[in-house]
Amino acid sequence: MKPTDSDEQLINSFRQTGETELLDQLVARNISMVRSVVYQMVLDDSLADDLTQEAFLKAIAGLSSFNGQSQFSTWMYRVALNTAHSYLRRQNRSPVEHHHKLPEPKPSKTQIGPEQSALQAELEEEVEMALGSLSPKLRAAIVLTSLQKLDVKRAAKIEGCSTATMYWRVHEARKQLKTRLERYLNS
Amino acid sequence: MTGEFEHEPLDDLLQQWAEAKSSSQEGLSQLRQRIAIERDRLDTDGIVVSPIQGNSGFWRAVSLIAIGTSLLLLIALGLSWFSQPRNDKELIANAPQFVLPTISNLELANKRILVSELQRIFDRHFAWIVETNGEVHLGVDQDHVQLNDAVPIVVRLAVVCRKTSQTQWKHVWSADVVSRSEQLVELSLASEGDTRLLIWAYALPDGMIAVEGEMRLPGEEAVRPTFSELKKSGDSSKVFTTTLGDTEYQVFQTVELLDGRVI
User: Fold this and answer.
1) Per residue in A73-82, is it b (16+ CB within 10 Å) or e — as a string?
2) Are the beta carbons of A135 and B202 closer than 8 angstroms?
């Protein structure tokens, strides 16, 4: 396996050789993307880890159904989002429940004072609550387009809806987020 | 943002949040190790068993209660069915042009009472109700339903078909769904030819109602209606149409807000 091989070539190699190290490589390449998407949907660190694991195990178990007609990353996005959607349905967590506590402070890349740090934590909490107030489908629309920076057509393909529907969802999600975050957007 | 929408301060705020919430390399490395260990537990057929949560005892108990209550509701629904001033099935069968399945005030009042009673019986576990072909199906939540300000939503679906050479529409299937906003309703009916219904409706702040759904029709496996609609309360419209062989199928939908905040 060459480092320049695509995900699809890696999967073909796995199918031919059965070497599980190739699967590890596939996971390593995509774990950051999958974990971020799942987190942005469920808004909980521990849960995001569990669901990321579940998504990869589903993908590996169902690798035979990947026919290569779309990019592996598109397929993986779909698996990750379906896993998050399924969880949210099972738990009926729409909107996502929040514990209304400030997040654990994370080490900052630049040194900032305590006031700035508190403000940043508050802002992150507000963004999280605003995302949590969106319905899962609207949240998925904003995650795919605004956070993952996919184009609307690809986002629609991942979510299994028409491009027009995705446009509408993104528009509606952005409208709701702007309303909720108005105070911070104007300051 | 992707260029299809103008870049705005909102995008900067979201990106800033995403960056702050991204997992560390160490965290990702640990997660990779977890996945590798679990991957080794996959059997040779690649079957993964990793339920996150479950409480079968609770669901068994709830199922028994639901079946019992369904029987009582069936009687109540039967009475209200016959008290309706018009019968939609007859209208559908006799109308050359299909009559949109509007929901009368009397029907809304009956649903309000029905939902209120279910709410009382199931406390806050009650999530949705589907009335189809004289039967009542209940959805209950394992957890207490989180009350919100959104009023319940009624979605009426009516499926009709006709031979392309004919003008008369024939009733295929119909259902009334009442759910709280943003509640996913999943219904599978083995007794009705493996009919399946998945519907999700929610009320937007501006009063519009978004409804998305998928269906599998009784005895018509090849016909899989899907729809994604945005409507005002009280609106009726055709949401799906297809022709299979010499048969044309149409799905009509009406949505109403069930005022009274009973869920």
Assistant:
1) bebbbbbbbe
2) yes
Task: Render pLDDT for B105-154 as a digit per residue (tens, 0 to 9).
Answer: 888 888 888 888 877 777 667 788 998 877 888 887 766 555 445 578 99
**Residue B98 φ/ψ, nearest 5 degrees:** -60, 135
Residue with tokens 């009042």: B109
**pLDDT tens string A10-50:** 888 888 888 888 889 999 999 999 999 999 999 999 999 99
Class of residue A8 by CB neighbours under 10 A (exposed 0-12, middle 13-18, buried 19+): middle
Q: Which residues of B touch A170 (CB under 8 A)?
A: 5
Range of lowest pLDDT (A3-12, A23-32, A155-164, B75-84): B75-84
Residue type, A45: D
Answer yes or no: are the C-beta atoms of B147 and B70 closer than 8 Å: no
Chain A residue numbers with beta carbons less than 8 Å from the beta carbon of B27 are: 49
ipTM of the complex: 0.85
Q: List residues bridging with B237 in a β-sheet.
A: B253
Q: What pLDDT score was predicted for residue A174?
A: 93
CA distance B24 to chain A (A): 9
Nearest to A138 by CA among B200, B94, B6: B200
What is the β-pairing status of strands B236-244 and B183-189?
unpaired
Q: Which residues of B touch A185 (CB under 8 A)?
A: 9-10, 13
**Three-state DSSP class for B259?**
coil
Rg value, chain A, Cα: 18
Among all chains, which residue has been given the structure tokens 């890349």?
A: A109
Mutation target for B interface from A49, A133, A167, A184: give the one with most B CBs within 10 A.
Answer: A49
Burial B122-146 (b: 16+ CB within 10 A, else e): beebbbbbbbbeeebbbbbbeeebe
Burial of B34 (0-12, 13-18, 19+ CB in 10 A): middle
Mutate to test the interface with B, among A91, A142, A146 (most CBs of B within 10 A): A146
Tell if the pTM clears 0.80, that is, is over it.
no
User: What is the rounded distance in angstroms from the CA atom of residue A171 to the CA atom of residue A85?
Assistant: 20
